[in-house]
């Protein structure tokens, strides 16, 4: 019996000693390897995409059914990124790649449309640092480093950069180069009717709207102090009026961007009717926070908007009455 | 020794020998790995641009490293801000940091620059926030209660004109004053001068003219002793000696604090009144409107 106990003791001791073998999980080399591969794949994908990448950014406002497109071309030699979005055409800024927790970190490291969207708030862009989660052919999956507040957990929305294969909407959007603000004055100061069709089949009652130029004082303020119009020089501030009835109108802040119209809810500024509640009314009415311009005609503007998959879900015309 | 004891002794010895042999057989690293698994500080940089080259030159010439690009290792992730637009960062580095701050100081008061310069300078596009990017009133000084690092927010909104830069350099000296205050202490005697008369948060309802009769260079200086100290430095950079003497003549306490702050800086190697005149001249010669 005693011999049996001794043998059991020896067997247990033998197993314990064997267990001192190093665990692969504790081997930091695997983190280096995984992170290094992600980084190599990221840079290779960035470099190889001749036409760049498309990012769709959704609003946190559930009334908004569309997502705003950003086309980005990365130059991995110069660390420059060229962005085309409603905020401007081919606007250059810089990016940097460093390390996050076991994965690369992509930082839009100088002011850009991304940092501008982050600054205004209300979208999935809750930071301008992004953890690179996964890199697969034609897709880069990334996540905002922070959710936006000190006491929120790390990591915001998961976003996808999709290789730009020049879908039809990119051609429709970028063919129109007329600057409405400076070259099409006929659209300012007159009642117009917005007629929209939704791919979902939802009905839309034609809405009476008007575009008005901001007063000289307001214009100077927006160009000197309001983030969207300070940082995105191609964006012009306007009043995007909406008349629910002929006698009840609101005059929220709207923007004429690159081949686009858009409005944003900004809670950091007052009055609310101009910066937050007013734009929110427009977003609820149109179910979008932007329109891309397909064509500017003599008396009308053809517009459309996309969902997060790049599908055209709103098509419409804004016509002079 | 009886047979039972002998058996136990031999068994114990056998177990000990096997254990020693097995433990000794565990493979050991000849040395501990000298690298952390991931280098979190490494940043993949591309070809240096013109601004990178300028920041390198400033570092070599003055020992101050300018940061205009960020990742979470430069400013901690509980601080919320946005980087400056590249063109604004470039203008700021050349015309504010180099031409208006470092170069005139190195020519006029090299000892002060050498002893009191921060080794890092951060250029930030927005104000600095501490709960989220949209939370509360933005602060600049939050970055500046550190001896080695000076940071300026709101660069995207700065007017790069002679007037805009002349005014901004007063704010830069204000923020730097917070560093010297932290580093050396403005002193027990200073805090006693206006004790009990600070406006605290009511400063917002006071005018600068009223503040001067109450013993502060401007209303914000009446907020608290640390801002009183910093706004005194700011005022001496903003106004000529003649104008300062007119202002301090309005209140004896203000005159006392002015003498203290002026001497505080003089002891560190800089005459703030002379610096005011130097800056007027330097800014007037900038190739800006």
Automatic annotation (TrEMBL), chain A:
InterPro entries linked to this entry: DUF4302
Top-level taxon of the source organism: Bacteria
Pfam families in the cross-refs: DUF4302
Protein name as catalogued: DUF4302 domain-containing protein
Source organism: Pedobacter nutrimenti
From TrEMBL, chain B:
Protein's UniProt keywords contain Cell inner membrane: no
Gene Ontology molecular functions: hydrolase activity
Record keywords, A-Z: Hydrolase, Lipoprotein, Signal
Entry keyword Thylakoid: no
A Pfam family hit: Peptidase_Mx1
Membrane-spanning intervals of the chain: none
PROSITE patterns on file: PROKAR_LIPOPROTEIN
Residues of the signal peptide: 1-21
Coiled coil: none
InterPro entries: LP_HExxH_w_TonB
Domain of life: Bacteria
Protein known as: Substrate import-associated zinc metallohydrolase lipoprotein
Species per Swiss-Prot/TrEMBL record: Pedobacter nutrimenti
């Amino acid at each position: 019996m005693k011999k049996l106990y001794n043998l059991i003791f020896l067997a247990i001791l033998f197993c314990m000693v064997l267990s001192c073998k190093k665990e692969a999980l504790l081997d930091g080399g695997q983190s280096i390897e995984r992170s290094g591969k992600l980084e190599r794949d990221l840079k290779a994908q960035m470099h190889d995409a001749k036409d760049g990448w498309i990012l769709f950014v959704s609003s946190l406002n559930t009334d908004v059914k569309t997502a705003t497109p950003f086309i980005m071309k990365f130059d991995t030699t110069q660390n420059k990124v060229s962005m085309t979005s409603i905020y401007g055409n081919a606007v250059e800024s810089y990016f940097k790649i460093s390390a996050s927790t076991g994965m690369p970190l992509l930082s839009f490291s100088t002011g850009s449309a991304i940092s501008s969207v982050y600054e205004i708030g209300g979208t999935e862009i809750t930071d301008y640092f992004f953890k690179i989660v996964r890199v697969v052919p034609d897709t880069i999956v990334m996540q905002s480093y922070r959710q936006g507040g000190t006491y929120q957990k790390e990591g915001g929305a998961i976003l996808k950069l999709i290789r730009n294969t020049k879908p039809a909407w990119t051609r429709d959007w970028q063919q129109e180069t007329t600057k409405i603000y400076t070259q099409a004055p006929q659209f300012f100061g007159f009642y117009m009717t917005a007629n929209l069709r939704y791919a979902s089949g939802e009905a839309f009652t034609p809405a009476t709207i008007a575009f008005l130029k901001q007063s000289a004082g307001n214009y100077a303020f927006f160009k000197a102090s309001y983030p969207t119009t300070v940082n995105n020089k191609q964006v012009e501030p306007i009043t995007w009026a909406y008349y629910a009835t002929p006698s009840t109108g609101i005059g929220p802040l709207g923007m004429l961007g690159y081949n686009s119209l858009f409005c944003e809810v900004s809670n950091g500024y007052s009055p609310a009717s101009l910066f937050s509640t007013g734009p929110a009314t427009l977003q609820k009415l149109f179910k979008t926070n932007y329109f891309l311009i397909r064509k500017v005609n003599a008396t009308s503007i053809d517009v459309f908007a996309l969902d997060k998959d790049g599908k055209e879900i709103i098509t419409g015309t804004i016509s002079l009455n | 020794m009886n047979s039972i004891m002998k058996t136990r002794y031999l068994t114990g010895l056998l177990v000990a020998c096997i254990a020693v042999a097995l433990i000794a057989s565990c493979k050991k690293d000849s040395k501990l790995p000298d690298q952390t698994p991931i280098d979190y500080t490494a940043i993949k940089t591309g070809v240096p641009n013109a601004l990178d080259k300028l920041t390198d030159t400033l570092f070599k010439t003055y020992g101050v490293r300018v940061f205009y690009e960020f990742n979470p290792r430069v400013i901690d992730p509980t601080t919320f801000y946005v980087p400056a637009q590249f063109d604004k960062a470039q203008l700021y580095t050349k015309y504010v940091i180099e031409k208006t701050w470092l170069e005139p100081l190195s020519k006029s008061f090299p000892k002060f620059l050498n002893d009191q310069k921060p080794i890092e300078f951060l250029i930030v596009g927005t104000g600095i926030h501490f709960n989220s990017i949209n939370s509360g009133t933005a602060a600049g000084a939050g970055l500046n209660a550190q001896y080695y690092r000076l940071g300026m927010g709101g660069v995207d909104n700065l007017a790069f004109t002679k007037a805009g830069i002349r005014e901004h350099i007063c704010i830069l000296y204000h923020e730097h004053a917070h560093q010297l205050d932290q580093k050396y202490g403005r002193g027990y005697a200073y805090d006693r001068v206006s004790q009990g008369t600070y406006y605290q948060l009511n400063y917002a309802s006071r005018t600068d003219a009223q503040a001067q009769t109450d013993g502060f260079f401007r209303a914000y200086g009446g907020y608290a002793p640390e801002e009183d100290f910093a706004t005194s430095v700011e005022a001496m950079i903003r106004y000529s000696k003649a104008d300062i003497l007119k202002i301090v003549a309005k209140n004896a306490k203000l005159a006392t604090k002015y003498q203290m702050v002026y001497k505080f800086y003089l002891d560190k190697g800089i005459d703030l009144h002379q610096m005011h005149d130097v800056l007027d001249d330097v800014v007037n010669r900038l190739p800006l409107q």
